[in-house]
Amino acid sequence: MTAPGSPNPVTVETFRELPTFEGLTDTQLEAIVGLAHLEEIDVGAPVLSQGGPANDMRVVISGKCRLIVGLAGNRTQHLMTLTRGEVIGWSALLDQATWLASATALKPMTVLVLDGRKLRALCDSDHDIGYRLMRNLFADVAGRLQDTRLQLLDMYSHA
Amino acid sequence: MPERIAATELNSLVSLLQADGYRVIAPTIRDGAIVYDEIASAGELPVGWTDDQAPGEYRLRRRDDSAAFGYVVGPHSWKQFLFPAREQLVTLRVRDKQPEWSAVADEGPAYAFVGVRGCDLAAIEIQDTVFTKGPFVDGRYRARRDRCLIIAVNCTEAGDLCFCASMGTGPRADGDYDLRLTEVGDELLVEAASARGRSLMDRLPTQAGGEALQVQADQAITQCGDAMGRSLNVTDLPAKLMGNLEHPRWQDVAERCLSCGNCTMACPTCFCSNITDTSILSGDETARERSWDSCFTADHSTIHGAQFRPDVKSRYQQWLTHKLATWTSQFGTSGCVGCGRCIAWCPVGIDITEEANAIAAGPGHPAPLPEPKQYEARENDGQVPVPVRVASVVRETHDTVTLTLDLPDGYQHGHGQFNMLSLPGVGDVPISVSGSNGQALEHTLRDVGKATGALADLVTGDVLGLRGPFGTAWPIEEAVGRSVVLIAGGIGLAPLRSVLREMIARHDDFPHLRLLYGTRTPNDILFSRELLGWIQNSRVRAHVTVDRGDSSWDGNIGVVTKLIRRKRLPKDGLYFLCGPEIMMHFALAELLADDVPEKNIYVSMERNMKCAVGLCGRCQYGPHFVCKDGPVFRYDQISDIFGKSGF
Lengths: 159, 647
Ligand SMILES: Cc1cc2nc3c(=O)[nH]c(=O)nc-3n(C[C@H](O)[C@H](O)[C@H](O)COP(=O)(O)OP(=O)(O)OC[C@H]3O[C@@H](n4cnc5c(N)ncnc54)[C@H](O)[C@@H]3O)c2cc1C
Ligand code: SF4
Ligand code: FES
Fold this sequence. Notes:
The structure holds 2 protein chains of 2 kinds.
Chain A: H1 26-33, E1 36-41, E2 46-48, E3 56-71, E4 75-82, E5 87-88, E6 102-115, H2 116-125, H3 127-153
Antiparallel strand pairs in A: 1-6, 2-6, 3-4, 3-5, 3-6
Chain B: E1 3-6, H1 10-19, E2 23-30, E3 33-38, E4 49-54, E5 57-62, H2 79-82, E6 86-95, E7 98-103, E8 111-116, H3 118-132, H4 139-147, E9 149-153, H5 164-167, E10 179-184, E11 187-192, H6 195-203, H7 210-226, H8 237-242, H9 249-256, H10 262-266, E12 273-278, E13 285-292, E14 302-303, E15 306-307, H11 312-331, H12 341-344, H13 352-360, E16 386-395, E17 400-406, E18 418-423, E19 427-436, E20 440-446, H14 450-456, E21 463-470, E22 484-489, H15 493-505, E23 513-519, H16 528-536, E24 541-546, E25 556-557, H17 560-566, E26 574-578, H18 581-593, E27 601-604, E28 620-621, E29 624-625, E30 632-634, H19 635-638
Parallel strand pairs in B: 2-8, 8-9, 9-10, 22-23, 22-26, 23-24, 24-25, 26-27
Antiparallel strand pairs in B: 1-11, 2-3, 4-5, 6-7, 6-13, 10-11, 12-13, 14-15, 16-17, 16-21, 17-20, 18-19, 18-21, 19-20, 27-30, 28-29
Helix pairs in contact in B: 9-11, 17-18
Bound molecules: flavin-adenine dinucleotide, iron/sulfur cluster and FE2/S2 (inorganic) cluster.
């Protein structure tokens, strides 16, 4: 992992083409640049760990990870894989949340890390940014909910 | 020139027909009803009888005259002679372990139908269209039809359930008859409309002066038309019915309907049939038999894993909308001739005119149906399988195998078409072509039931029956030079594999090629070695995802829609979708939300199939037949009904 201020600093360009930030102006993005940094993650390394405090929200810039939920009795359920543009840990936007799943890198990753507390504060103080961001995230969450439904339907079991 | 004949001379007509070698079928009384059966003489006609009819009621009554045709129609229709309730299509003989299928020749008698009413004449013409206007032609039906002679009767008294005037099919019997009679008092007006009819007329003891009788006959026919027992408002009826599929009346009628199928059996135009392999006839012989079926049965709309019309409401809706609406798109006319049989023979007296009038008057916006398609008629019915040898079997997954078959002589197919694969005594099922080359033909099938289970158990050297190819293909030439995205789910990769292979081979024509493939688990991935090749091939961008993975799986986990959302897909590209309907439903939603035009998307549909040639009615999908208009449809052709319950 690399710390803030590493070779690839976050700029407005980092946000381009990421659905989460779609519709935000450059000025609005400038405000978000300050609460974000990039992290590099090696294959096999954790991106986040179930049960840990949900302090940061992450967006995949490159690479791939898988989301796993640990269940009782040492069992695990592999939920999905996430790649460029997808959000990991949107629970960081909720107050005092913990991670509900773990994520592990399957390919070397670069992730954009946003400080959850600061992001919440920014959304509270600038509702235009807050509305845009929440709308984009809502679309993402809705898509995932739908995907989960389809997974539950087990649609290939019959076809 | 019309001529006149005394009603007492009807027997001369019957004798002439018999002398000409016809088996004379006419109305006659049996078990308290007027049925159609062979008669030996005119004395067997229901002379001096009539029928009182009401919803759910039918009763014979003596007339106070001796009219020979003074009644309307009973429980029978002429279809039982032209399209028998049971008939053998194909026999199978196994000699030295080699199966041989052959068509059952039609060696039936030549019928003369006496007393064919306007509605029934129209019904015969409708079935002529169904069975002989292609693409496949039922040779047995056509032979029987060509041999048969029709003596029509104009109606001068309508029954209480008749509404032929609304349907434009009566009371005058216009159409393809040989001889036509109109009963006026104790005389008959005789008109000939064919060489066979004229030859009969020449030999009948007719008298001149037909014109005067004609005036009286015309008057009686007109009065009859004005005094119809029932009427149906046919103005824009198909669109109005299709626009009112949410009308509460459907539920209301469903609560009365017993789903018994009597209406479909009594209907002179209903043509749905089932096809089954019957048990051994003599030693090593089996027969494939066709029998009347009804859209009210569960089997009619069931495929493995889905029942498209699970309740009475959707089955009644299929019956009514097929008869009065989608039939128009399929065959160019309404499927209803206004004979009223379905009203009389419904045990609870449901009245088609009442239901249709009420529903069509609903608030729904009219939904027009597609124009009827024209087909080029072929010279066969596509029912006889040819024996083919299994060259090799590859087990793809725990439940799926690929059968490589020796290519039958002269066999050619389009990518996306399917064959019917048969095993003696087991039946035949539609399976898409998953690949081919000059020598071999591949089918990839999943063992889900009786037929697919037996096919999956075949080994190299076994012989099975194949008929086909059937249906539409992926529009490969339309895709030349454009971005193409194939979206496959589960076994749906099979029909896309053959098109993908072709496109990879013709790289210059298809430079931008993508495959998005979703399946259940890593163990369910089909064609895994070939798939790996595609993933590594720079000519195609192939992505695979599974619904459920474990730690041994490094690939994507998530549904295929996630792949669609993730990849930037071209709006002007062409999309070919094949997989479970629910998967296609969500995939379509993603594409449409991304502004991909409906006409750029093709989907492959699946419905129950028996004949595969447009004759059994099983695979109906609204105005379409999946077997002849599909399975590959351009999405805008079916977007009105895709995913809607009841279709
Ligand atoms: C155009 C088309 C292409 C197909 N291509 C393939 C393919 O490439 N690979 C593959 O594995 N499967 C394919 N199927 C599905 C396959 O035909 C069914 O799985 C098969 O008919 C099931 O028959 P069964 O006797 O094993 O199952 P059962 O459940 O015992 O079925 C009993 C009968 O119901 C009917 N029936 C059941 N399911 C279907 C169905 N899905 N479609 C039509 N009739 C059905 C058949 O008449 C069958 O004999 C295709 C279906 C269609 C319509
Ligand atoms: S689907 Fe149509 S032809 Fe077949 S039984 Fe029903 S109404 Fe009659
Ligand atoms: S009409 Fe028989 S399968 Fe289509």
